[in-house]
Design brief:
CATH class of the largest domain: Alpha Beta
CATH architecture of the largest domain: Alpha-Beta Complex
Largest sheet: 5 strands, antiparallel
Radius of gyration: 19 Å
Length: 271
């Protein structure tokens, strides 16, 4: 948990104390009406900032506008900044999250594939590639026991549907009375929008007590069964890549296994 240095605050024209914000993996800070966080891949942060700075907001969503340094850059000593938005996340509203995500994805549908995706190397990128059969399934025995049915269920999908999407919607849409939902912390992937929706559905089912009817309500999305399969492989593989075999406690497996049953068999969730 690194406090933003004074030189970073000064670079963005800020002064005084910064306060740690909830979420954001414990790395997001507020200074006045600006939010600061460490940059992961600089090329991704700069690409995202350029897109969000010029993106027209529609009636279905808001975005956190990036803030430049006083010298006109998007990054200062490994930190980026954006305008503070009113609202709070709510993982108990998955349908509203997916509706906002759909509006956002429609707005960014015309973007070309960003080059930084070929540079990024982290557990989430690795898991995404495994989910889409671009890398082999490798890992601990416990991991393979959880994921193997999904791998067998994986089938072909429309190869032309990919675009820039937000791959972590559920915890990154904020709600405020009288305002459109706000999309924050854009995790950029080049996949179909239906996959991004499926990741949010899987997260809601596994970790936030959503009911299986959520799956049915969004079954009009293209290749929906296959998107759910890939979303689960992605999340399960991320856990393995980030934490290894130690993550597969009985409680952790119990979060995934009923959803794996639902996705691979079409049956109900067992609680």
């Amino acid at each position: 948990m690194d406090f933003p240095p004074e030189r970073v605050l000064a670079a963005f024209g800020l002064s005084g104390d910064a306060d740690l914000l909830p979420g954001g993996q414990g790395e997001t800070w507020r200074a006045g009406d600006v939010v600061l966080k460490p940059v992961g891949l600089a090329a991704e942060a700069e690409w995202r900032a350029e897109v969000l700075a010029g993106l027209p907001e529609g009636p279905g969503f808001r975005v956190a506008r990036p803030v430049r340094t006083i010298d006109g850059w998007w990054i200062a000593d490994g930190w980026e900044a954006s305008a503070l938005l009113e609202g709070a996340t709510d993982t108990g509203r998955p349908d509203d999250v997916l509706t906002a995500g759909a509006a956002f994805h429609e707005a960014v549908a015309g973007l070309p594939r960003p080059a930084f995706l070929d540079e990024r190397d982290d557990p989430w990128t690795y898991a995404d590639q495994v989910a889409w059969d671009e890398r082999p399934v490798e890992g601990s025995t416990a991991y393979r026991e959880v994921v193997e049915r999904l791998v067998r269920a994986r089938g072909p999908v429309d190869p032309t549907a990919a675009q820039a999407v937000h791959g972590d919607l559920l915890g990154n849409v904020m709600f405020a009375p009288g305002l459109p939902p706000a999309i924050i912390d854009w995790a950029v992937y080049w996949r179909p929008p239906a996959w991004a929706a499926a990741v949010a559905v899987v997260d809601a089912l596994c970790w936030y007590d959503a009911k299986p009817e959520l799956v049915t309500r969004w079954s009009h999305l293209p290749d929906w069964d296959q998107m759910l399969v890939r979303a689960l492989i992605y999340r399960i593989t991320t856990d393995e890549a980030a934490a290894g075999e130690s993550v597969w406690t009985p409680r952790h497996r119990a979060a995934y296994e009923p959803v794996v049953d639902l996705v691979t068999s079409g049956g109900g969730l067992r609680r």
